[in-house]
Every structure is written in C-alpha cells, then in structure tokens.
Write a structure and sequence with these properties.
With 335 residues, the chain is α/β, with parallel strands linked by helices. It has two domains: 250 residues, Alpha-Beta Barrel (TIM Barrel); 67 residues, no CATH class. Helix content is 46%, strand content 16%. It contains 14 helices and eleven strands. The strands form two sheets. Strands 1-2-3-4-7-8-9-11 form an eight-stranded parallel beta barrel, surrounded by nine helices. The chain has a two-stranded antiparallel sheet with strand order 5-6. Strand 3, helix 3 and strand 4 form a beta-alpha-beta unit. It is globular and about 60 Å long. The termini are far apart. The N terminus is likely disordered.
C-alpha cells in the first residue's frame, strides 16, 4: 500500500493562476494551449470532461506529453458516465507516466449532456461521496472492500498505486460543497460565478472542513470567465453569448441571486434555444457580465482578478479563452 501523508495531496500554493479548456479545440490546438499555459506560468491546466466533445484522458495525455511542468486536471470525471474504478485507473496510469502532474476532479456532469445521452443521475450526493472513497482507496493501493448504496467494489486493487493524485470535487450546491470540505483534497467552483456566490460557496466548504475525515485541507479553485480587449465595450460584447449560455442554467439561480443581477434565466434559455440573438443580447446586460466575469481592458481584468483572489482562493483559473495567443495575453495580464 502507498502511504499517504497529510501533505501528499497538496494542490498549488495560494495565489496561483490556472487555465481551463472546454474541449472544443482540436487536439493539435489544445496542445498549443497547453504549451502557452506552461510558458505563461500557469500552475494547472483544467481539461473539461464534457460528453460529445473530445476524450479528456486522451487530451490530458497529449498536454502532459507536450509540456514538462504544468499540472493537468481531469475536469470533471462523472461516476454517472464512467465507473469510479475506471476513473482511478485512468488517473493512476497518467500519473505513472507523468508523476506528480495529474489532478483528478470528480463531478456529477452537465445536466444537458447527461440528458442528451439518456443518463439519469439519481442520488448525486451518495454517488459522489462513494466515488471519492473508491478512487482514494484504489489510488492508495488498498484491496477494495467497499459495499455502498451505489457502488460495490470488492477484493481487487490497482497494480500502480500513487499518493500523488489529489481528488477535487466540482461543486456548487450546499451539500456537495460541504462534501468537498469534508472528504476531497480540493473544490472546484465553476465558471460565470460572481464573487458573492464564491464567498457563499467557501462558507459551505468551511462547514464541511470542520467535520473533515480526510487528512489535510480542502484547497479552493474557481474558474473565472475572462475576456480582454482594448476597450470595455469590446470585451463585454465578445463574451456576452458565452455568459448567457452559462447563466441560463437553473443551477445558477443562487449565483445570480447573490450577485444582485437582474436576469430572466428562463427567457435567456428560450433565446438560446430559438437562436434569438438580439433578445439574448438585450437580456444579458453589461451589468450581468461585470458581476459574473472578468471582462474589460487589461487594467480592469487585473483588478477583477484581485477581487477573486482576495476571497481566499488558492487558485483562480482563466476560463473562456481557447487560443494560444489569448491564453498568453491573459496570463501576462493577471499573473
């Protein structure tokens, strides 16, 4: 069995900047993004695990092979689509080739993606709790003896255990955030979140941390959608549809509420469905974008990142930029 010290799963030190990729770029383009992220000093490259897009394990391998330092996170592997045993196998195999550079992030998965694949997601809290425990035990080299409500894994272990892979939980609801604080090595708060919502999320993580069963502290990361331009109106316009796409989801209701923005989420959803772009652009106002993203001139974006970092996050991750030049520019601005 591999021993796990309290610091074995430590994530990036406070003040680090990461980069997130949504999986839409070609693998060749993604490799260039990875190189740009490393060259710009990013600590972590977060690889989206969206159904119907590019396979995240293949993409992570390509990024790791093309770089030498940056960590690569699988964001977020869903136990509703991939069994936790296979998730642990993938993480362990990547760490075998690239020791100490792999981060495993678990999450329920995007509701729209799951629905499109005909996959239901019952008992999400129990499922993610057990997935964390199964993955942690397998990565630690334990012979499994897990019989839970959702998964049964008995009498087998991995041949290549590792104590170098932290387990992060992607979370936005209060119970899932508390679970992250109690059992995960880190929490990932996803994109288009305003600072009041992140502050609320961290309060829930702290509640879980107070009853922590795993060693160490739960590290905190948030993805911030970012757009930099010569003028603020140009930046706001360039990210408007993206922000509408993200914020239309019902699970962002608390985020919208706490930010004090006026946004008719149902109307935005309908506008996207109907490709009614004039209506969407009217609904997603400049104030909505200012509250939920870092968009503007370099000086404005740098100041906005300072607001996010002041919340006590260990890593603020650049989201919404998917080209090498844009990643390089953003890292130069915010680091």
């Amino acid at each position: 069995m591999v021993s796990t010290s309290p610091d074995a799963h430590a994530l990036s030190p406070a003040g680090r900047i990461g980069v997130a990729s949504d999986g839409r770029a070609t693998l060749a383009e993604f490799v260039e993004q990875a190189r740009a992220a490393e060259a710009g000093g990013a600590s972590t490259l977060w690889v989206a695990c969206h159904l119907f897009l590019r396979d995240p394990v293949t993409a992570a391998h390509a990024a790791l092979a093309a770089t030498s330092r940056i960590k690569v996170a699988l964001m977020a592997m869903s136990p509703f689509t991939v069994h936790p045993v296979y998730i642990a196998m993938s993480a362990a195999a990547l760490d075998e080739l690239f020791p100490g550079r792999v981060v495993l992030c678990l999450g329920v998965g995007a509701p729209g993606d799951l629905a499109a694949a005909g996959i239901e997601a019952p008992r999400p809290l129990a499922t993610l709790r057990e997935a964390i425990r199964v993955c942690r035990a397998l990565l630690a080299g334990e012979t499994m003896a897990h019989a839970g409500e959702v998964f049964t894994v008995q009498g087998r272990r991995l041949p290549n255990p590792t104590d170098r892979v932290p387990i992060v939980l992607a979370a936005s609801g209060p119970q899932m955030l508390e679970l992250a604080g109690a059992e995960a090595d880190g929490v990932l708060i996803s994109a288009a979140t305003g600072t009041p919502f992140i502050r609320w999320c961290l309060e829930q993580v702290d509640r879980g941390q107070a009853h922590r069963s795993a060693p160490g502290r739960c590290s905190r990361t948030a993805i911030v959608y970012t757009r930099i331009a010569a003028t603020e109106p140009e930046a706001l316009g360039g990210i408007r549809r993206t922000m509408g796409f993200i914020l239309r989801g019902p699970h962002h209701a608390k985020n919208v509420e706490l930010s004090g923005t006026r946004l008719d989420q149902a109307a935005v959803w309908n506008a996207f469905r109907d490709e009614d772009w004039p209506t969407l652009e009217r609904l997603v106002t400049d104030d909505v974008i200012r509250a939920h993203a870092a968009a503007g001139t370099p000086q404005q974006v740098r100041a906005r990142y300072g607001e996010y970092m002041a919340l006590g996050l260990d890593e603020v991750t650049i989201g919404g930029i998917d080209d090498r030049a844009g990643i390089g520019q953003a890292l130069a601005v915010v680091r």
